[in-house]
Amino acid sequence: MVGKEKPSYVLAANAGSSSLKLQLFKITPDNDALIPHLVIKSSISNLSSPPTIFKFKNHDKEGHDVESQELNDVASGIEAFEFFISYLKKDRSGVDSGLVDKITHICHRVVHGGEVGEKGPLVVNESVLKQLEEVISLAPLHNGPADRILKAALKSFPKATNIAFFDSSFHNSLPDFIKAYPIDQKIAKERKLRKYGFHGLSYCWIVKNVARFLEKDPSEISIIALHLGSGASMCAIKNGESYDTSMGLTPLEGLPGGSRSGTMDPSLVFHYSSRPADSDKVSSVELSHAERIMNLSSGFKALTGTSDFSKILATDPPTRESDLAINLFLDRILGFFGSYWLKLNGGRGCVDAVVFAGGIGESSAAFREMIVKGLDGLNGGFDGIDSEKNQEGGDGRAVVYSIGDGIGRSRLLVCETNEELEMVKECLEDKGLW
Ligand SMILES: Nc1ncnc2c1ncn2[C@@H]1O[C@H](COP(=O)(O)OP(=O)(O)O)[C@@H](O)[C@H]1O
Ligand SMILES: CC(=O)OP(=O)(O)O
Ligand SMILES: [Mg+2]
Fold first, then answer.
1. Peptide bond connecting 51 to the previous residue in cis, omega within 30 degrees of 0
2. What pLDDT shows up at residue 287?
3. Residue 78 CB neighbours (<10 A)
4. Tell me, what's the ipTM?
5. Residues in binding site for ATP
6. Helix (H), strand (E) at residue 291
7. Cross-strand partners of 410
8. Any residues with CB less than 8 A from the CB of 288 and at least 6 apart, and which?
């Protein structure tokens, strides 16, 4: 039901391509504001490289954490969601019985918003669901699972307000000449064939938190942000807004990912395969055979046998395959880097910071160092890397921290991104959603 209740318990569900991440918050009022307090943080990851791993932390009660448990029967986003909800109801979760029924709002990350997502978050009803169904095939690894989770949540939580937050909304600011593909513009318009861009909830979080770290207004910062996770993208952010981003009509364009090819010669697809559609067990949507291969069994998985980048980096001694994957990824990242550097005017101080985020960007000091080495050629006045700070990583409390030596004019930063909390904060601030 829409607009009925003030948020008191809010669940956030983030269906990524290889994981489902969940956070549950208790909401308390503070004067005019509503403050979220984290109660549960959980993830079900490695959905694309089994065994699936379950993590669970109860921030309210000690003794109920699950560090890392292998799950045998959970292989998709919807199975992960159902597993999590039933786990919440079990004694061993440490959650008070009845709490699940107190959930008033559920925030869902929906990667592709199509046209309906242009305006920002939406309370989900039949009409929104229908419009979202039309773009499922434009983000097959994400929107299919999110659609199934949304429908399951509507059924299991009939009293809660379900809100869809779109990754693509952040990129509405892309200029027309960057949004457009060089094809017949009449057809492009009719079929809505343009660059949308994704990881927008993460970039939104990054802009706000990096601005706070730099003690500037979000509208004053220009950065090159790298969200490197199972899906990887980069974003040129000018005055707080998306100016260009590497993903496109679908999350397949741009950088390679765990199981995604990223950009290739468009003709490669026709030379690779012209076999008919077959069913897709993972996302339950129809993909042409070639599109399925480019999304599900390309990228690092095709080059090395695993989509888990931490395993590729840890291959010791390195193999021809692990070297190829790492160097190819670096090459594509540097390609976008050079391009975005120029697009943001180039020269010393044209960006306030280079920001690393996502599973790989936040966790791999070694890969960050390789990228920063590659930036030397730009001679653009970046901080050099402070190896010690880079190796140390964050202290678990700071959302943004520096890994640079403080000499350059553009900082080197890591931002612990938090798409779940980004949605919840927006939900609490936007009374129109409840
Ligand atoms: N310590 C690490 N070093 C390198 N890569 C890591 C590390 N920890 C996690 N990763 C990688 O991060 C990726 C998952 O990132 P994440 O942003 O959580 O993905 P998603 O949201 O798409 O499920 C996986 O490829 C994983 O191997
Ligand atoms: C858009 C995208 O690729 O998201 P994720 O990295 O979470 O799979
Ligand atoms: Mg993700």
1. yes
2. 52
3. 22
4. 0.98
5. 21, 227-231
6. helix 289-296
7. 382
8. 276, 277
**Other Cβ atoms within 10 Å of 44 Cβ, number:** 27
Parallel, antiparallel or unpaired: strands 411-415 and 353-357 = parallel
Smallest CA-to-CA distance from 159 within 78, 86, 100, 84 is with 100
Ligand with minimal distance to 170 CA: 2
- Measured distance CA(257)–CA(251) in Å, rounded: 10
Which pLDDT value is given to residue 380? 66
- The rounded Cα 365 to chain-centroid distance in angstroms is 20
Which residues lie with the beta carbon below 6 Å from any ligand 2 atom?
A: 16-17, 111, 142, 167, 198-199, 229-231, 251
Identify the structural domains of the chain with CATH numbers, from first to last.
9-166 (3.30.420.40), 215-419 (3.30.420.40)
Where is 236: in which H helix or E strand?
strand 232-238
**Ligand 1, CB within 6 Å, residue ranges:** 16-19, 229-231, 258, 308-310, 313, 358-360, 363-364
C-alpha torsion sign, points 192, 107, 363, 50? negative
339-346 long-range contacts, CB within 8 A, separation 24+: 339/244, 340/224, 340/234, 340/236, 340/244, 341/224, 341/378, 341/380, 343/236, 343/243, 343/244, 344/222, 344/224, 344/236, 344/238, 344/243, 346/380
Contact 430, 409 (CB under 8 A): no
- Is the pLDDT at 38 greater than 80? The verdict is yes
* Helix ranges, 140-239 (H): 143-156, 176-179, 185-191, 200-214
- Residue 307: closest CA among 198, 419, 231: 231
State pTM to two decimals.
0.95
Which residues are documented as binding site for Mg(2+)? 14, 419
Instruction: Point out the ligand nearest to the CA of residue 299.
Output: 1
DSSP label of 384: P
- DSSP single-letter state for residue 31: T
Classify the phi-psi angles of 105: left when phi > 0, otherwise alpha if psi is within -120 to 50, otherwise beta: beta
